[in-house]
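Hi F.,

I've been meaning to write this up properly since the lab meeting, where we talked about keeping a consistent format for the predictions we share between groups. The idea is simple: the sequence comes first, exactly as it goes in, then the structure tokens exactly as they come out, then a line or two of notes. No screenshots and no reformatting. I'm using this chain as the first example so we have something concrete to point to.
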Amino acid sequence: MKNRTLLQIAKEHGSPIYVYDAETIIAQYKRLTNAFGKVKHLKLNYAVKALSNVSVLKLFNSLGSGLDTVSIQEVQLGLKAGFKPESIIYTPNGVSLEEIETVSKLGVQINIDNLSILEQFGTKHPNIPVCIRINPHVMAGGNTNISVGHIDSKFGISIHQMPLLLRIVENTNMNINGIHMHTGSDILDIDVFLYASEILFETAKHFKNLDFIDFGSGFKVPYKTGDIETNVEELGEKLSKRFNEFCKDYGKELTLAFEPGKFLVSEAGVFLAKVNVVKQTTSTVFAQIDSGFNHLIRPMLYGSQHEIINISNPKGRERFYSIVGYICETDTFANNRRINEINEGDILCFKNAGAYCFTMASNYNSRYRPAEVLIYKGKPHLIRKRETFNDILNNQIEMSL
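Output, unedited:
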């Protein structure tokens, strides 16, 4: 995305604002499908939680993608975007049996990650196909908040509980058509991923009527120049070969499924914010922007680093700045970061803002959530309006005192 285009978007629609590039999304999708080109049946289920705007979902539908959802609302968004129910997998955690039953009536693939619900659902609905989420007890992920395959994780059914799991399946005579795992996000070592995959293959041997094996996702994307990323091409080569061998031994061509979210949309998005104040203290120069962790919480929640560029002065002399927001708690996006000279009114561009950014935004401090723009075929399209004061009051009930 060119600086000129981004500045025009900020001028037309105001700031802060999220901007996404469809071409980047399409390129990432093709990169992943090409990496696993040697697999006969491949299914990519885009993880809706990464970026759930309905226009972005429609783009994925046009690419032939499926959807990975974690709530009934995400399922409904997928259906609204035109996805067929059978192309959606629903993988909740800790939700009620009633929600799972409601989703199952929509014809969506159910994925269950605990023995209690598995037994209850199998007893009541033995004919509805169910996928089982396994916890392989393999630690992966760049932060403890996004590592979900370890032994103390709340996610998945422990591989050590396999005897009980098999007894439930046998007693209910339920239809298990898929096996699933997810180790965590920001996977660096593909050997760890391949090791966890072997656990999943061993688990799959216990089930004779599988249609697919879902390996989750968690591929790392680069957040700065020279940053490490998951080598999906090498992973595709090695895992495809092993998967094809397994299918041959299993006696059936299964579907290899993934649930990429960040990998597909992170690098496609940027976040634009205006500098309100440049403030010099005894030791620091602060650039205070018209946003805060109510709009972009990842640096505060995960310690994530987003490259920040001054697109208003891209050739200016570099100086050191701390970029902070307007929230009345610690609200720091970057400490002592080298950025082209910043003046009040400049527009700063935060890179890698496509995944888990707008979707985690809030109305904290009663601030409005920002607008969203999708650049599609070279043309910017407003895909979400900025909120207004009426949106803040919506659903509030004012008492007469």
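Notes:
Residues 141-150 have pLDDT under 50 and may be disordered.
The two ends are 52 Å apart (CA to CA).

If this format works for you, I'll send the rest the same way.

G.
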